[in-house]
Amino acid sequence: MKKDVENETKKRSNIGKKILFAFVLPIVVILLVITITFSILGKNIFQEASSIPVIGTLFSSDKSALTTEDLQRQINQLKATLSDEQAKISDLELLLEQKEAELKALKEEKDQLENDLNNEATTDSSDETTEEEWISVVKTYENMKPKNAAAILTSMDESTALSILSSMREKNVAAILEKMPAEDAAKFTAKLMQLQQ
User: Fold this and answer.
1) Where is this region: Disordered (predicted)?
2) Mean pLDDT of 33-45
3) Mean pLDDT of the chain
């Protein structure tokens, strides 16, 4: 039994020797030849190895210093980007407030003009007074910016808008129709042509 144990131990040591001579020693010799070759060529093998992505992390000596600097640089860039975006948001919020104020003013103006038109229609005053008021309303629309007038006319009832447009000068009508959405401009143009015939 002692012989069996000795034979088994010899077999195991033979397998270990075979692995050592078949794999480990050739790899060590190859690495030694590569190191000597690079040394003769005047290149530092460790610097060359550090440029390889995975192996480079094994040979990097100032890894933590570079990483900290890189992280700090990224943090500073992100802070700058964040402040730029916050400035853009502030500008957009201001623009939104301005547009909301313009919209409110246009709605108030539209409501006022519709009230004026409704009051004119219900007033039992003389034809001469009604005619003067109507001319005043038409002149108001003619003096407005075409964009604002177009917005108001498209939102009011069609018959009133047609009455106003038909009483205006052609130059002003053209400018207002130009600022209207295409469908509304086409609709009002067709109705104005019917009124003229």
Assistant:
1) 110-131
2) 81
3) 80
Q: How confident is the model at residue 6 (pLDDT cuts 50, 70, 90)?
A: low
Tokens standing for 124? 């039992």
**Of 149, 137, 141, the residue nearest 180 (C-alpha):** 149
Look up residue 171 and give its amino acid.
K
CA distance 9 to 4: 8
Strand, coil or helix: what is 42?
A: coil
Structure tokens at 80: 């700058």
157, 168 contact by CB (below 8 A)? no
Closest CA to 122 of 94, 72, 114: 114
SS3 40: helix
Tokens of 127: 């034809």
Rounded-to-integer distance, Cα 86 and Cα 93, Å: 10
pLDDT of 65-89, one tens digit each?
Answer: 457 888 888 899 999 999 999 999 9
Please identify which residue in the block is written with the tokens 């610097």.
47
